[in-house]
Every structure is written in C-alpha cells, then in structure tokens.
C-alpha cells in the first residue's frame, strides 16, 4: 500500500532511501556556547534509527549577529566543527543521512544574543519589535553571502551529507526574497530576480567551494501568508531561479513555521504541487502531514517528491519503521497541540523539545523501558490517557496488569477533549495507547466500577488510581434548575443544543472550547467568568486560533463577573461592585473547572501497602502532566 513512500530518490547525487524527511525544528538541546548538547545526538539518532530517509538539523547560525536564540547552534567558526562532526557521526551510525540547515535571523535576531545590531535588507523593523535595523550595504550583503558559503564548507568538513539554505519564516534570506520587506534599489532589490540574487549567489558559491556533488536544498515559503508579502506566484518564479543557480531540491514551507491544530493537515500541499510543476528538481513539502495515507497521497499524486514530517517526527521517531511494517495502529499521531514541542518550558526537569502524548521524545538516552526485576500484579483504575499510558508501559516491563474502567469507553475526559472542532486527532492517542495495551497483554475490564470489595476480590500488589476528575458545581441558588447543564454533557452529546441562546459559565479552556462547539451548531453564545481573560492557560498560538473562532461565531464575552444567582432564563451577577442581570437564555452550561475524583485513593492509601494516584485524581492539571506522570511512575514501579 505504501510502496511509493519507500522508493529511493536522489537529491543531487545523494541517494535517499525513502521519501520521509525530518525538517529543521529547534530541539532546544543546545547550549549558550552554541554547541549541541549530548542529548541532541541521541535525539537526532533516534529519528535516523526510526527510518527517516533524510534528517535536516535545526537552524545553525552562520554569523553572530544573526542568532535567533541565546542557545542556538552555530557554524560561524571552525571551533564548532568537532561538535557538529559528533552529530553527523551519531546519525551515520544509524545509517541516516543528515543535512545542516544554515541560517541567519536578520531583523528578527533574538534578544540578548549579541551586542551587534540586527541587520536586514531594509531598515524596516520587525512588527512588534521596536528595534533599529541596520540596512546592509551592497558590500555587506556580499559578506553575508560569503558567511553562508563558509558555513557550508564547515558543514562539509563536519561530514554532513549536504546543506539546506534557510530562506523562509521571516529570517534574513526570506527578508531579501520578500517584496514586503526588501525595499532595496541596488542589485539585491526590486524585481523578483534581484530579490532572489542573494540566495542564487549562495548556491553558486557553495557549489564552487564544496563541489557539484555536495547537495544543496533551499527552504522557501510557497506563501508568506501576510498582506503585501510573497505569494505563490513569487515562490514559483524564485524557485526557477534557485534551480537555475544549481539547487538540488526545494523545500516548500509556509509563512509561519509551526501551525496549531486549527490548521488542516496537509494545508501546504497545493503550494508545493504548484511549485513542483515548474521544476525539474525534487520538491519537499511540509505542513501538518501526520498520517501515512496523507503522505502516500502526496507522492502518488505527484504533488511532491518528499514529505517532511515535522512535529510528527517529534511525536513518533519510529513513524517510518511502523509504516513500513504496517503497524499503523501503533502510530502516535501529532495533535497539533504545540504544548511540548513548541512551548518547551514545562513542569519537567529542565527544558527541551518533547511531546505531550510521547514524553519519551527527547529523553532517548535517559528514559528506557526495561524489564522489571520484581514482576508484580498491578491494578490500574481508570482508562483515561494517564491510566492507559501507565498500563501498557507496566505490561511491557513484564508486570501483570489489569485496567478497570467504569464506562464503556476508553480515554476519559481526553476523549471529550477531541470533540471540539479541529481537535479530532486527540482521539487517535486513545486508540494507539489501547493498541499498545493489547500488544503487551493488558487485561482491560470495561463497565467495571472499582470499590473496596472489587479490590479485595482481585488482589493486586500495586494499585494505580487514575480516576480523573469531576466537574465543580458550586452552591449557588438556582443552579439545580432544569436548563442548567454540565459542559462535559454537552461535549458528550448527552445534551443537544442547536439554534438556542446559551450562556456558558467559565472561560477556561473547557468553557471556551464548549462555546466554540456550540457556535458551530448555530447557537447564540455568551461566555461569563471571574477571569480577566479567556483560556489563560492555553498555549499562545492555539489560544489565538481559538479566540479567532469565537470571534467568528460572534461569541459575547463577559469577564471579571461573579454569578450570584441562577434565574429561570439567566443569572444575576456582580461586576465592578454592581449587580446586573442576564436573561433570555434557553440554556446555561457550567464550566467552572474540575476537582480530583480521589475518593478511592483516599480510602485505599490507608488500607493498601502500595497505592499511587496519577493525573487529575492526584491534582487537576492537563493531559500533558497526566501522561508525563503516568510514564514516570510506570518506569519506576
């Protein structure tokens, strides 16, 4: 079925054994001296071992004034070659191919990275950054060209199989390419050819210094997706220029490097296809490709020659091997949540790229599933994602595991979280964890309520309580009215509301996403909360997309308001020390948050020698923490 994905293809003279590419993504496994850390070597090696035909490193800076971050990897001095050589050696040990992505940040140079001023093709500052940008002179542009060429020479010396020139995502070369930023009047500005000249000269210079057999890829945007910036027609024209200059492949990206779950999978495929129709060299496409059949359709349709699996390769380093071996039910699917791959500062010890649903990612050398010396009989109570994750890991380690779930469905509230629009990929996590449970012999008991008697009848050496949380229902007059419902019941479709006037009480993530879902069904929705902002704990990028959806549905939002009484068709509330009334509502939906469902744990910790609580039953947080804690515990028992 997936044969075309495993046909080899050349980039220049380099044979790539399949069509899967790991694109450049910041691992955050680099230090303030701009070297890769030890864990980076294992992180990249894991993707090579996992079967990816080509790996492209995260951006490696060609000049000090172009650093994007204080800890970005660098290649602007020969001193970096030994460290970079260790990286290539480790990937080559796993029979992988690896390119260095060479980059300069230009006007979006990171704060605190250098005392040198940021530079650009023009003096135009980056929107949102009140920082003076030095407009490069013609001679200085030529110096930048030489810095890229020198970086490629160092990459070749470090045994990289090729380089990728970063000409996308608003960095320096993208600024030159873009008609929205490049306002020059010399040979590097003006028409499409002049704007692309800097990249053309870099390609030509690399080929001259490194040889025609050293492959060069150019990453560029099929659409910059900003008013007045480059569009698809600009991309097609510049792609032809790059090909003519000697590029061996084009890597077609999009304006913003990372997209949330609100953007459809494969959204960038039409751009890549349009560029490919102009060229004779291979085209790589990137953009939320997280399903093997989607990847297969890209190659089969001729839309591109290679598929780059960005966040998906973070989520599942074994993706390619699993597809090749037809282990589709074992694929961990990127949900687009961005919680651990993009927003890397976390509750975990230290920082670095990882994945909400696969916390093993980024810990390839430290978190290893090993057979337990003392095999035990373990009862896991609750089949939410925490319970499922703990169960299969414990079973893989050799323990005898029973997983008891009171309902007929697996996944708990995580499954409900997949109900709002564009969050459907969450449910794939549940099915994958369930597949692992089946593979490793977990005994799953559905429709099973666990109490003290059940535990007495089913003796276990260890009990892991993962009973989740229950909605908070405060004692407010009138809250028991018949038209008052729980958000969870709306998400579960136990309560059907269409074309109604609905008041959602609670502006946290659950309340906001429930309001979004209600808006999809034609309801006139108002959100009210004591908070001063909507979904404050949500990740920035997904939150922006969520707010845009609420705005599209014309959702009314009332914040810093406290409900004091429920009426038949509304509520009385306090705002700014004044009492107000909202009425005329057909339904009121409660999303006041949750509290731990910890009765079983509190009971059993007094009566059982070895009992643990994980996830919301321990402390209400989010799926990210529940899965992480479940994994950590399962590795320790």
Task: Report on this structure.
The chain has 637 residues and is α/β, with parallel strands linked by helices. The chain folds into 3 domains: 3-330, Aldolase class I (TIM Barrel, Alpha-Beta Barrel), CATH 3.20.20.70; 377-471 and 596-636, NAD(P)-binding Rossmann-like Domain (Rossmann fold), CATH 3.40.50; 484-592, FAD/NAD(P)-binding domain, CATH 3.50.50.60. It contains 20 helices and 27 strands. Strand 20, helix 18 and strand 21 (556-558) form a beta-alpha-beta unit. The chain is globular, with a radius of gyration of 27 Å. It starts with 8 loop residues before the first strand and ends with a helix.
Strand order of the largest sheet: 3-4-5-8-9-10-11-12
**Strand-residue fraction?**
15-25%
CATH topology value of the largest domain: TIM Barrel
* Gap between N and C termini: 40 Å
- What ranges have pLDDT less than 50 throughout 5 or more consecutive residues? none
Helix percentage range: 25-40%
Fold blueprint:
Layout: E1 9-11, E2 14-16, E3 20-22, H1 38-49, E4 54-61, H2 81-93, E5 98-103, E6 119-120, E7 134-135, H3 138-157, E8 162-167, H4 172-177, H5 192-195, H6 197-210, E9 216-221, H7 232-245, E10 249-253, H8 269-276, E11 283-286, H9 292-300, E12 306-308, H10 310-315, H11 319-324, E13 377-381, H12 385-396, E14 400-404, H13 412-417, H14 426-439, E15 443-445, H15 452-457, E16 462-465, E17 469-471, E18 484-486, H16 487-491, E19 501-505, H17 509-520, E20 524-528, H18 540-552, E21 556-558, E22 562-567, E23 570-575, E24 578-582, E25 587-590, E26 594-596, H19 599-604, E27 611-613, H20 623-636
Parallel strand pairs: 3-4, 3-12, 4-5, 5-8, 6-7, 8-9, 9-10, 10-11, 11-12, 13-14, 13-16, 14-15, 16-27, 18-25, 19-20, 19-25, 20-21
Antiparallel strand pairs: 1-2, 17-26, 22-23, 23-24
